[in-house]
Amino acid sequence: MYLKIKRLIDIILSFIGLIILSPIFLLLIIAIKLDSKGPILFKQKRVGIHKTHFNILKFRTMRIDTPKDTPTHLLEKPDQYITKVGKFLRKTSLDELPQIWNIFVGEMSIIGPRPALWNQYDLIEERDKYEANDIPPGLTGWAQIKGRDELPIEIKAKLDGEYVEKMGVWMDIKCFFGTIVSVVKSDGVVEGGTGVMDKEKAAYNKETASR
Predict the structure, then answer these.
(1) Do residues 91 and 186 touch, judged by C-beta distance below 8 A?
(2) Domain locations in the chain?
């Protein structure tokens, strides 16, 4: 039942967002075109609900010669591929704004597990353990406000599972406003790195075991 309410909220808010943010879209489009050669938008095959595939939309932040279908953290010296405007977009998460369209057409939700790359088999498999592949992926989510790029795959999947278990209005509100705080503070953004929170992983496992 909540998924139907959630979908209605997604449609309304994404439509409003597309209208209100249109001036920002225009400014970013101009900045991207002036900064480097290539398309404005970056399309990438991602995993949606029930492990179906869709093309996620982002503002392009990397050069056109960047290896395709490779997570940033697996690139050798990823900074060499990121454009000047791209660094700003990634730090502020403004590169994610085109996903409002993905939300509007029903491929994503505002809140949910971040959609994995189609070839991130380890993350997809871990999420299967928690039924986190059976709900729409989100623009932001519980794992996003708990560490983002720094989280090891096992912990990211566990947090996605916690979201599935506790999914509701209050959980979505916490994720939404938690994301705003995380973006302002640039929490958990690690270009070229993931899974570096060893101490946090140990603390999380200890906390989980004590429940």
Answers:
(1) yes
(2) 2-209
pLDDT tens for residues 69-128? Answer: 666 666 677 778 899 999 999 988 899 999 999 999 999 999 999 999 999 999 999 999
Half-sphere exposure of 77 (CA within 13 A, CB side): 1
Q: Are 136 and 115 in contact (CB under 8 A)?
A: no
Note the pLDDT of residue 180.
87
SS3 54: strand
Q: How many CB atoms lie within 10 A of CB 7?
A: 14
- The residue type at 194: T
- Number of neighbours of residue 24 by Cβ within 10 angstroms: 11
Q: DSSP letter string over 95-145?
A: GGTTHHHHHHTTS-EEESPPPPBTT-HHHHHHHHTTTTTSS--EEE-TTGG
Cα angle 96-100-106, degrees, rounded to a multiple of 5: 125
pLDDT tens, position by position, 159-204: 999 999 999 999 999 999 998 888 777 654 554 444 444 444 444 3
CA neighbours within 13 Å on the CB side: how many for 175?
Answer: 26
